UniProtKB/TrEMBL annotation:
It is a multi-pass membrane protein. This is FtsX-like permease family protein. Signal peptide: none annotated. It is found in: Cell membrane. The chain crosses the membrane at residues 21-41, 256-283, 304-337, 357-374, 394-418, 424-450, 766-791, 797-823. Keywords: Cell membrane, Membrane, Transmembrane, Transmembrane helix.
Amino acid sequence: MTLALSGRIARRELRGGLRGFRIFLACLALGVAAIAGVGSVRSGIEAGLAAEGAAILGGDAEMEFTYRFADPEERAWMEDTALAVSEIADFRSMAVRGDTRALTQVKAVDDAYPLVGNVVLAPDMPLAEALAGRDDLPGAVMAPILIAQMELAMGDTFRLGTQDFVLMAALENEPDSAGDSFALGPRTLVLREALETSGLLASGTLFSSKYRLALPEGTALAPLETEAKERFENSGLRWRDARNGAPGIASFVERLGAFLILVGLSGLAVGGVGVSAAVRAYLAGKTGVIATLRSLGADRRTVFQVYFIQIGVLSVIGIALGLLLGGLIPVLLGPVIAAQLPVPAQFSIYPEPLIEAAIYGALTALIFTLWPLARTGEVRAATLFRDAMAGAKLLPPLPFVAITLALAAALVGVAVAFSGTVTLTLWTAGGVIISLAILAIAALILRWLARRAAPFSRGRPALRWALSAIGSVRDEATPVVLSLGLGLAVLAAVGQIDGNLRNAIQQDLPDKAPSFFFVDIQRGQIDGFLNRLDTDTQVSRHEHAPMLRGVITQINGRPAAETAGDHWVLSGDRGVTYAGALPETTTITAGEWWGTDYAGTPQISFADEEAEEMGLKLGDEMTVNILGRDITGTVTSFRAVDFSTAGMGFVLAMNEAALKGAPHSFIATVYADEAAEPAILRDQTTTYPNITAIRVRDAIDRVTALMEGIANATRWGAAATLLTGFLVLIGAAAAGAPARAYEAAVLKTLGATRGRILLSFALRSALLGGGAALVALGAGVLGGWAVMTFVMESDFVVIWSSALAIVAGGVLATLLAGIGFAWRALAIKPVATLRAKE
């Protein structure tokens, strides 16, 4: 028989409608829609960032320097290149009013700010008027949350460093805020010239200077970037331009989107279980048709082609529905989504995420339908007259096994290519495969246990009927355990990871972390600063160290990125310190520390774990740019550095003679009783107004708030997986409805009451749901432990509240699905059902 004939037979069968394939279509459409929707939202944000790059950045390009302002040569190049230049200084400081102190992120601007966009103030007034101030005091505008925190009113005065300011307005909109990095305090905006006598921008203090450039229309940004970096090669310059105005946000959106798509793939795998079950149920119902075709001379290939074409057409319909939903929903809900985002977004129909989702959907449909289709081809016609799958082998022919494995490998490869995160994708794929294998084995064990336990339930007929049904040859356990189990496993893993991260940040970290970080302590202030702490009995300990910032530019004479790749240590400037004698808290793990009086060529001590990750070894040469000056030293030792305590830790330390002459300040950590914190903060910032204090508990609260949004997005992704699993449950319950009706008819005939039959169905559903939930919980806990141990490198404890919710949810889901279809079975009269079976 030809392929055309197979197609004609398939078309005629499809005229019968979609009966039995509604769950098939729903599972496939939901999985594809989730992936397409996440991808469309990500593309919309990326398009918004690209279109509004200049507005986000505050100019067409930006040149940034660490802890210094541009020198005359650099400033002259900017003036010659750009139509306009705006200079900004960005740093943290303490806003002080009486006894009230609050950490704020200060942006000191010039008259040209902003080059792009508009600052919105309340009350409405021009920014220049607000910053001009009144009564011989410079003006300032503040974020509303900071005004409320300090209980300020318009016209009140407050202090930054040693300079008084008058509050003129609330900062309602800062046009370039999306391009700024994560801040520990709300924004205060002042004029740069008003800080000249504040002591906050002295040599060695911690600030960054940013120069926004308004360029002539049509300026090629890539060549200009190359020219700037080559001209000021060793200056510590960092360049950004309108092509990617907020690289941190763009990278975050890309990574979060990739992670959510991988979660969506887990949901698609759950849907695949439903797809496979729907195909098996459909083929079982086509016994007579398949047997007739075989009797008329159709070979196994023809039978396979007929039903492969049918499933293929239905898969295309399911994928198309998913693409329609995933593409249109972000567009329809665009205004609502955009209002919740801190960055601009342009929602439209983007082909790239739809193509990606379609590929995922097609591969998933192939993987999960080839197996039952291939097994059907092995069944003889005589056997098909009784049960389409009863006579089939457990495994299909080896060629189909090989094709299925190749398709699974292709799916993983496509996911790696699209996500760009090899490790995360392989971990996700491995987790899904291992979870499915564990759940399949668990289903077999559950059936075996049910058969073994059934004889011991004499005297409890409802329980015995339930156990006998679970252990029967119909195998109701496998689709329920697989579909519900995988969805619950994903949700359990997310819950365990989320709970452990919250514990680490909100409970464990505050116990280990210092009370305060103090920065910008000048050399002449450090002795008095430490004396105040030494005389306070409520201060358990404190540490201090000189603080500089440097950028690692070369390793062994080559660009650092060529040697160590994209390691986080090279992604920007890092804290650098110096010491003479070996500090008491420092542990050398390899090499030797320089002596107290060493004054030779620069030597470097590097954090041991980061050194191993970067491939460093003792004797390597490293060039660090500090304040525009290149210092090349030799790595002579490695140190143990624990960043998890939020205490003082430097990746890179040098000998004292190498850095002591450079302008710098000191950083200190203070460990004290919580009751003593207000007095310490008041005394130190009053005596030394230029010092900035960062209260660790406040920083933890801001990080926790950021994590809440990430956790919510992840939970929504896991919920979509669980919803798919529930749909598969409904499909399994619907497929088993005729068998339940027959059971009910037989039991009624033998004298069983409706209540007892219903109790049996409920027990069956509860046992299956509880078993699936327990296995899923084990897989989820194992996955959460692996992520926390090997990825987060943190402690792990089981979050029992989340675990119990997972078990309860599994039992409830199967009860709802099972009892919902049981009512119909109980309502049918036994006579009609038994006659139909004759």
